[in-house]
From TrEMBL:
Protein name, entry field: Cell shape-determining protein MreC
InterPro entries assigned to the protein according to its UniProt record, in alphabetical order: Cell/Rod_1, Cell/Rod_MreC_2, MreC, MreC_beta-barrel_core
Listed GO CC annotations: plasma membrane
Coiled-coil parts of chain: 60-94
Pfam families xrefs: MreC (PF04085)
Family: Belongs to the MreC family.
Organism: Deinococcus cavernae
Domain Rod shape-determining protein MreC beta-barrel core stretches: 111-257
PANTHER family named among the record's database cross-references: CELL SHAPE-DETERMINING PROTEIN MREC (PTHR34138:SF1)
Length: 260
């Protein structure tokens, strides 16, 4: 039985007892009144206690309801704060890219899917033609170049990442050291870049985009030279293995740039 039900039962019994005692007092006020007076007082005190208990339980219920309401409101505010922080991070990313890579950013897009094939590196974005996206638009983040848009629908688009075997990008040594080359995707997570034998490329060199191909703005970080492939006696180019600046599998938001 619930506590408030028990309290009501006790309260009812005490009321009945009080009525009975009052009845006896009417029949024999002088003799019975003095004998039952203590019992009447006890009954009245008990009734007051029961009323107080009922009021306390009601107040407790109101307090619990208020706590639940405040808890829900606190959770809602936390969620709103998290969303605001995410949006602020996107705006900072957009500002950083427009100031360091290219001023013609179209906007931020979310990565909603990644191609499951280990041989391909394709990303699905939640932005499409209705948002101003077009084929051949570069896709980047502050850390470096991601790839370019290759398919566009009304509300979705597909990006081919640099490490995809069907992707290629013109590269050069950072810092204005020259040496134009071409980097192609090498699954699952590297690129192979070809330079002429006269280019002084070495392990640790940073490669950035060049004007070759006319798709990407010049100077965006592509990756770091990880290995120099030994040159054969008949080779006319030097091949290097490049670790990309961007981990495609860890992407959540990207910035889409306007096509050149």
């Amino acid at each position: 039985m619930r506590p408030w039900t028990q309290a009501l039962s006790v309260y009812g019994l005490l009321l009945v007892l009080s009525v009975v005692l009052l009845r006896f007092q009417v029949l024999a006020p002088s003799a019975l009144g003095s004998a039952t007076a203590p019992l009447s007082k006890v009954a009245l005190v008990a009734a007051d206690n029961v009323r107080g208990s009922l009021a306390s339980m009601a107040e407790g219920r109101r307090t619990r309801e208020e706590i639940q309401t405040l808890t829900r409101r606190n959770q809602e505010l936390r969620q709103q704060n998290e969303l605001l922080n995410v949006e602020l991070g996107r705006l900072r990313q957009l500002t950083q890219i427009t100031s360091t890579q290219a001023p013609n950013a179209v906007g931020i897009a979310q990565v909603v899917d990644v191609a499951p094939s280990p041989l391909l590196a394709r990303l699905k974005l939640n932005r499409g033609r209705a948002d101003g996206l077009r084929v051949h638009m570069p896709v980047t983040i502050p850390a470096g170049l991601v790839g370019q848009v290759i398919e566009v629908s009304a509300r979705k688009s597909t990006v081919i990442a640099l490490v995809d075997p069907q992707s290629s990008v013109g590269v050069t040594l950072s810092g204005g050291r020259g040496g134009r080359g071409l980097a192609v995707g090498s699954p699952p997570n590297r690129l192979r870049a070809e330079f002429s034998l006269g280019v002084p490329v070495k392990v640790g060199d940073v490669l950035v985009t060049s004007s070759l191909g006319g798709v990407y703005p010049v100077g965006i970080r592509v990756g770091t030279v990880e290995k120099i492939v030994p040159v054969g006696p008949n080779d006319v180019t030097r091949t290097v293995i490049v670790k990309p600046a961007v981990d495609v599998g860890a992407l959540t938001d990207v910035t889409v740039l306007g096509a050149l």
